[in-house]
Write a structure and sequence with these properties.
Length: about 350
């Protein structure tokens, strides 16, 4: 009898332990957090199958950036827009096809502002002649973003690769995933958390706005129609606002939408001047200025102002983490022959 009871107790205890350990990690996870999948991506993934792949991408990027420095900004942003919508699967590169739903690239958040597609096409064409059906478009984009950071900011990081290309691209998903420019710090934190990225990584990656441009339409509410009592956003430096108004006259029509540099100090250098702009209330987008104005992120911004080298290191690491969001690997997806079309 005693033996029977203790046997039963032991089995019960074992059962409880199993249940506990199975449920524990789920309990420990913060709500909504879905950590960037611990991706089986690998540095040097093409070392045996296409050792020249990364070099070809670098040459294509260097050439394009030499002709137009803005392309570096375009490629870094393109990688971000790829990764936040259906993971880093090259879905942003797919063209819309007649008779199918409109593709990501033709969403208002991407068209007409996203740039650099020809650079990916060019690198892909060369790689396809040397190593057919081997290197994914998603990886080419990840390499191109890294090479852009090197060119524009002298920032280097190794890119784990082995992504596969997706076969679906839907414009209807874009605005559900990408943060809009009017988000505040808390909303940005939540948006990045959904992708498994931390508050610090969100602030670090926003430093990408130290290069490139924005259309007036992305921030003109701050100049002309902020709210009922303040037509102009009081968090915007008044001299900077006056300058922006000369560049972005009250839109008389929707045909012209001029562009303005995101970083007024060093518009083509990927550096921490973006964060010093915020201290002078010269963040261009609401989503930029909020990082200094919110107590949630203020300290992180101040640290990036003080320690530019630390920020640069963190930027590389955060790009790697962003580059691993919901990737397809192994036998998932495909290796596209042309980055604009599924096979
Ligand atoms: C934190 C939330 C973010 C918001 C709300 C946001 C929003 C925007 C907006 C509205 C523009 C201007 C588009 C236009 O009007 O032409 C822009 C440009 C840009 N964004 Fe972001 N962005 C965010 C995060 C990021 C991240 C994480 C990266 C990359 C790591 C990035 C890289 C860029 C770059 C490089 C540009 C300039 C593009 C060019 O000159 O072609 N952004 N962003
Ligand atoms: C307009 O914005 C300012 C600054 O953020 C704020 O103090 C004010 O209460 C707002 N007014 C309205 C009507 O929302």
């Amino acid at each position: 009898m005693n033996v029977k009871i203790s046997k039963f107790a032991a089995v019960l205890l074992l059962f409880c332990l199993v249940v506990f350990f199975l449920s524990e990690p789920a309990l420990a996870k913060p709500k909504h957090a879905r950590p960037a999948k611990v991706a089986p991506l690998k540095i040097g993934f093409y070392a045996k199958t296409c050792p020249i792949a990364e070099k070809i991408v670098r040459i294509a990027v260097n050439e394009a950036v030499l002709l137009n420095p803005g392309i570096a900004a375009g490629l870094i942003r393109m990688h971000f827009h790829d990764c936040f919508v259906r993971g880093c699967d090259g879905s942003v590169l797919l063209d819309s096809v007649l008779g199918k739903p409109v593709a990501e690239k033709d969403n208002l958040a991407n068209n007409p502002s996203l740039r650099g597609f020809e650079v990916i096409d060019q690198a892909k064409a060369t790689i396809e002649t040397l190593c057919p059906r081997t290197v994914s478009c998603a990886d080419i984009l990840a390499f191109a973003a890294r090479d852009s950071a090197l060119k524009a900011g002298n920032i280097w990081y190794d890119v784990p690769a082995g992504r596969r290309d997706g076969r679906v691209s839907l414009s209807s998903e874009v605005l559900q995933e990408l943060p809009p420019p009017f988000f505040n710090a808390k909303q940005l934190e939540d948006n990045f958390k959904r992708k498994g990225l931390s508050l610090d990584e969100m602030v670090t990656l926003s430093g990408a706005h130290s290069i490139g441009v924005s259309h007036c339409s992305s921030f003109s509410n701050r100049l002309y129609s902020f709210n009922a009592t303040h037509p102009q956003d009081p968090s915007l430096d008044s001299a900077y606002a006056a300058f922006l108004k000369t560049r972005c006259p009250l839109p008389a029509n929707n045909v012209v939408d001029p562009i303005v540099s995101l970083d007024i100090q060093t518009p083509t250098r990927l550096d921490n001047k973006y964060y010093t702009n915020l201290q002078s209330r010269r963040g261009l987008l609401t989503s930029d200025q909020t990082l200094l104005d919110s107590p949630l992120t203020r300290k992180l911004v101040v640290n990036n102002v003080k320690f530019g080298n630390v920020w640069a290191k963190k930027f590389g690491a955060a790009m790697v983490r962003m580059g691993s969001i919901d990737v397809l690997t192994g036998k998932q997806g495909e290796i596209r022959r042309n980055c604009r079309f599924v096979n």
